[in-house]
Amino acid sequence: MRGNHSYTGLPGAALYKSQRESMIDLLRKRGIRDERVLKAMSEIPRHLFVPEALIGKAYGDHALPIGCMQTISQPYMVARMTELLEIDKDSTVLEIGAGCGYQTAVLAALAGRVFAIERISELARMAQANLKRLDCHNATILCFDGTIGWEEFAPYGAILVAAGSPSIPKPLVDQLAVGGRLVIPIGEEEQQVLVRIIKTEKGTVRENHGLCQFVKLIGRHGWED
Description:
Number of strands: 9
Largest sheet: 7 strands, mixed
Helix content: 25-40%
Low-confidence stretches: 1-5
CATH architecture: 3-Layer(aba) Sandwich
CATH topology: Rossmann fold
CATH class: Alpha Beta
Shape: globular
Mean pLDDT: 94
Distance between the termini: 34 Å
């Protein structure tokens, strides 16, 4: 990521500054407290991650379609999931479901290294292009089944899953470091509960953090295609 995290030279950076400020005000009102998360999201140009026809809606608090029947998550959910991970510059993070790369960029602004998986090749290429545009150098994206994780770089201090799963994929828990946190939507196809799993020496602790709605997590340890 850019050393000073400045995106002022990117298209529309100044034009959409007030929209980003309004988005951050709303996130504060909705209970987001991590100032590092708010700072990252106040600077990253979300409008560059959505289709051109939807740029005017980029900073509204709602999910938007990005093609391939997938979405960019609403800003509140991006902020809440990132906040629950409790990451810092010493963290190595695994992201499942990179989509267009916006959540990846937020994670990369806060963590030391991000490894992101995207199942759909067209979106993986889009995410790579978007991160390159932002000079984001501490995130790596590959295209394969995210439900099996990415064992090569495990254990991870934090894992974020940006799609809803019927259950918690065991490989992701196995690849989580002791003391690490896994944030994942769990439930039915239409609605899930945002769950945080904290791994301990004796097992795992599960916390529920409210209802949410994500696209399905497709893969060996998720939903069938």
